[in-house]
Amino acid sequence: MKIKNKLRLGFGFLFVVVMFFGAVSIFYIHQISDSAKVILKNNYESLSFAREMRTVLDENKLPLTNGAQAQFGKQLQLQEANITEVGEKEATEALEKDYDVLQSTTAAAAPQYQAQYDARAQLRKIEQVNMRAIVHKNERAQASVKEATLFLGFVGSFTFLVLFSFSVNFPGFIANPLRELIDGIREISHKNYNQHLNFNKNDEFAEVATAFNDMADRLNEWENTNLAKVMSEKQRIETIIEQMQDAIIGLNEKQEILFINTVAENILNINEQKIVGQPAEKFTATNDLFKSILASNGGIKSFKIALAGKEAYFQLESREIVIPNLSPQTSDVLSVASRSAGKVYILRNITEFKERDEAKTNFIATISHELKTPISSIKMSLKLLSDERVGVSNPQQIELLEHIKDDSDRLLKITSELLDLSQVETGNIQLNFVVSDPVEIVDYALNSVRFNAEQKGINLQVIAHPNLSKVHADMEKTAWVLVNFLSNALRYSPEKSKVVIQVSEKNKQVIFSVKDFGKGIDEQYQKRLFERYFQVPTDGQNKSGSGLGLAISKDFIEAQQGKIWVESAIGEGSMFCFSLPAHKMDMGQKA
């Protein structure tokens, strides 16, 4: 039976019970009302008629007048039509005979007085009969009321029990299947796909149970199939990790080892049979390398490890594994939040690349060093050719000599930068730290570029704040950085413009800056300016350098615990800056 029909039958049953109780109540109420009406209609009227006739006899003397006779006769006729009790008829007939005597005009006075006396007796009899009837009918009415009260109480109690039982049991037809359905859904949410519902009724809940069981079977089938796929994929991934040449270590969110390949075991020198599932801290207590690896907070870090008596270089990369956290906390859609599932550490062997890089650096250093000798010879030859004592050159020859001189100067600068770069890459930067005055460093750099500035008509403006602290730095390399900044500023500044060199102090840092008013540098190139060999695209009017000057400048400044940066905007020029820590002087030095 459908749920809709069940509800109809249930509410129909309630309606029938209520109608039954109402009909029984109306029947008994109507019966009590009829009993009361009989008392008022019959007996009360007879008493009224008798009272009216006695009043006529009491208020009139014998013989009765015609009006009294007519009034008495009228009440007697009404009484004759209202005879309802036993004995009332005989008393009424005797009263009629007395009335005939009372209205006779020929009767003597004695018979009329006797008739009046007998009439009063008959009236009392009529009243007594009706009074007894009233008492009897009242008793019957009371009995009927008691009977009706008892029966209605029984019917009401029965109706209450029926309705109470219905209100308790009928909701179970709806609530019980829903409760079982909710319990089944909860079991499914806990991945108990063997949960089934069994409803033995032919209604919508049976259809829901069938659909639910079908869903559970499909989920169970999918779970089993998916588990097999997951296991297969897990085995495949483990095989791939094991065959990789890089050392790979995976930890879960509880810092337990999820996987580790043989390469990592060999590098870390871990010889235990069962490693997976063990807490990482079990090995970090006695393994400094493993501890250093796990201490990495992301990014890329380099290690130098001795393997088989040979130094090997490794690059560590650590990544946090973030997965979506599906949490059914909202009423519409599953809320998605990220949570950490652990970390993966990859230790790549870069020994071969390191060796190649060192070979490249050594090659550049060697070539640069070897090139400086012939370039110096070329410059010496150019100087001799320019001397008029050797011979006078024509204008064309002088122009060629100038071009050769510019190219040789540029070539010599490139070889010097390559030598400096090789020192930086090999970590052999030779810094001669001395306590220096920032203004002296600026003056040293200005002397190197003042001639070039005068040739382009560029004004070099120096702004030095008073009472500047001294710096503990390599004066030559710091000045070299300023010269590099100034050379670039002069190269990209229009003629008859100005270049501002400013020295200031802020937050215990001495800041050097060189600002030009050229075209400026596009923002997309600013982040790469300090990369090696990077060159900003030019319009062909300015000769481009080697792309090493700013990279070497960055290495020189950072080697002195300083910072370097650029500020530029198209059409507003560029400002290259670097800062060095202010030198702390003790009391003796200040004195």
From TrEMBL:
It is found in: Membrane. It is an enzyme of class 2 (transferase). Residues 366-584 form the Histidine kinase domain. The lineage of its organism: Bacteria, Pseudomonadati, Bacteroidota, Sphingobacteriia, Sphingobacteriales. It holds the Pfam family HAMP. SUPFAM superfamilies: ATPase domain of HSP90 chaperone/DNA topoisomerase II/histidine kinase, HAMP domain-like, Homodimeric domain of signal transducing histidine kinase, PYP-like sensor domain (PAS domain). It comes from Mucilaginibacter jinjuensis. GO terms for molecular function: ATP binding. Residues 172-224 form the HAMP domain. Residues 233-278 form the PAS domain. It is a multi-pass membrane protein. It catalyses: ATP + protein L-histidine = ADP + protein N-phospho-L-histidine. This is histidine kinase. InterPro entries: BphY/WalK/GraS-like, HAMP_dom, HATPase_C_sf, HATPase_dom, His_kinase_dom, HisK_dim/P_dom, HisK_dim/P_sf, PAS. Keywords: ATP-binding, Coiled coil, Kinase, Membrane, Nucleotide-binding, Phosphoprotein, Transferase, Transmembrane, Transmembrane helix, Two-component regulatory system. Its EC number is 2.7.13.3. The chain crosses the membrane at residues 7-29, 150-170. Residues 227-254 form a coiled coil.
